Amino acid sequence: MTLDILIVSQQKRMMMTKSIKVRILNALLIVDIGIILFCILAGQRDWFINSQIGFFSSLAVILASLYSYRKMVEQSVASGAVISSNEDLLEKIEDPHGVYDENESQEAILEETVEEDKKITTLEAFKKSKAFISFYRLGAYLLLALGFLYLQSNHILHIPSYLFAIALPPAIIAIMFFWQSKNTKESL
Questions:
Q1: What is the mean pLDDT of residues 104-130?
Q2: At residue 10, does pLDDT exceed 70?
Q3: Does residue 155 come out as left (phi exceeding 0), alpha (psi in the -120 to 50 range) or beta?
Q4: Does the predicted TM-score (pTM) go above 0.85?
Q5: Tell me: the pLDDT tens digits for 134-166?
Q6: For every residue of the chain, which 3-state class applies, written as one string?
Q7: Which of 76, 97, 143, 164 could form a disulfide with 113 if both were Cys (CB 3.0 to 4.6 A apart)?
Q8: Are 64 and 137 in contact (CB under 8 A)?
């Protein structure tokens, strides 16, 4: 019976995740259409170019960051790095290397811990910092920098419109996540 409840709650959570993605994309699309209409009606070509380059490069950075963080969490769950119960969590925090376990001697555990720390290679360190050094994020930041350099080199950079457009996607996504968490708390 508890397995059925767990499966149903997991399905509800997945549906909520899909619905928040759709809501975020709809909100971003509506705001971008509003910016386009404003720029067309006001006749501001520089505002249009700056806002679109800033908006999409900022959106690329955010989506790449969310994607890389999601992959990092999935890999942590798959490798067993995420602990499910509170007792296991407390035990892992208090004794991360198992020094105080009663089964093995303390010296053997200490030696194993030192050997494990020494064995970390560059490849393993790169894998552990995958969310920090994600090719998606690096590409998105490169897009942001190239967009800025394009605007600067063509002498059409308009700082207020560019900064406004860069700030919009994070603000919209933060508001949508806040509303989703608020709605989730109210439904519980």
A1: 60
A2: no
A3: left
A4: no
A5: 788 889 999 999 999 999 999 999 999 999 999
A6: CHHHHHHHHHHHHHHHHHHHHHHHHHHHHHHHHHHHHHHHHHCCHHHHHHHHHHHHHHHHHHHHHHHHHHHHHHHHHHHCCCCCCHHHHHHHHHCCCCCCCCCCCHHHHHHHHHHHHHCCCHHHHHHHCCCCCCHHHHHHHHHHHHHHHHHHHCCCCCHHHHHHHHHHHHHHHHHHHHHHHHHHHHHC
A7: 97
A8: yes
